[in-house]
C-alpha cells in the first residue's frame, strides 16, 4: 500500500465525527479560495495536490474530526487522523521541508505531554519523534536550499537533545527510557544533518541547483 492509499484509509475515520456547519463552510471556502487563486499549473504535482484538497473537502463535508484530532496524542484513537492531516498539509504546501522541521517540535511536545501524564504511550511518542526526524532529514536534503534547512534542523535537534536529557534525569523508569531513546534520535539526527552539510556545504551554488534558482538570485551569487 503506497502513502497516498494510507492517507486515504486514515482519513476515512473522519466520517465518524460530525463537524459544525459553520466549520464546514469555513474550511470549504478557504480551500476553494486557495486553489482558485493559485496559478494554474498542469503538472502531476499540482494535479495531485488538487485531488488531495478535493478529497479532503469531501470528508470535511461528510464528517470531520480536525479539531478533535488536533490535540490528540500517540495512542489516542484520533492520532492517526492527526498524522494523516499533517501529511495532507505537507503535500499541499510549497515549504514542505520547513514544515517537516516544525513537526519535529510538535512530536517533542507530545513526548513532554505524555511524560507529564505519566502515560505509557510515551514509547509510541518517542517512535513518532524519530520518524519525524527521519522525514525532516530526507525532505531537507532534497531541497535546493538544503544548506539553510539542514542548519536549522541541526540547531533544533541539538536543542531538543538537551531538553530531553534534562527531563529524563528526574523521570520515572519507563518515561526515562523513552526520553533517552528520543534524545538519542535527536543526537543522531543532528549528526546526520551536520554530515550532510560537510559533504556539500553550499549546494545552492552548484551548477545543477543554479538552474532551479530565480534569475535575480543567480545574479546575486556571481
Describe the fold and architecture.
The chain crosses the membrane at residues 46-68. Residues 71-170 form the DUF5667 domain. Residues 164-222 are annotated as: Disordered. By secondary structure, the chain is mainly α. It has helices spanning 3-11, 21-36, 44-62, 66-70, 79-92, 96-117, 122-141, 146-169, 173-199, 207-210, 215-220. Helix 1 (3-11) crosses helix 5, helix 6 (96-117) packs antiparallel against helix 7 and helix 6 runs parallel beside helix 8 (146-169). It starts with a helix and ends with a helix. The model is unreliable at 205-222 (pLDDT under 50).
Largest sheet: none
Total strand segments: 0
Structural class: mainly alpha
Uncertain regions spanning at least 5 consecutive residues: 205-222
Name the helix and strand elements from N-terminus to C-terminus, one letter apiece: HHHHHHHHHHH
As for the number of domains, it is 2
Cα-based radius of gyration, to the nearest Å: 20 Å
- What is the global morphology? flat
Query: What is the number of helical segments per DSSP (H or I, 4+ residues)?
Result: 11
Mean pLDDT: 77
Distance between the termini: 46 Å
Helix fraction? over 70%
The fraction of residues in strands falls at under 5%
Domain DUF5667: 71-170
Region (Disordered): 164-222
Pfam family, one: DUF5667
Transmembrane segments: 46-68
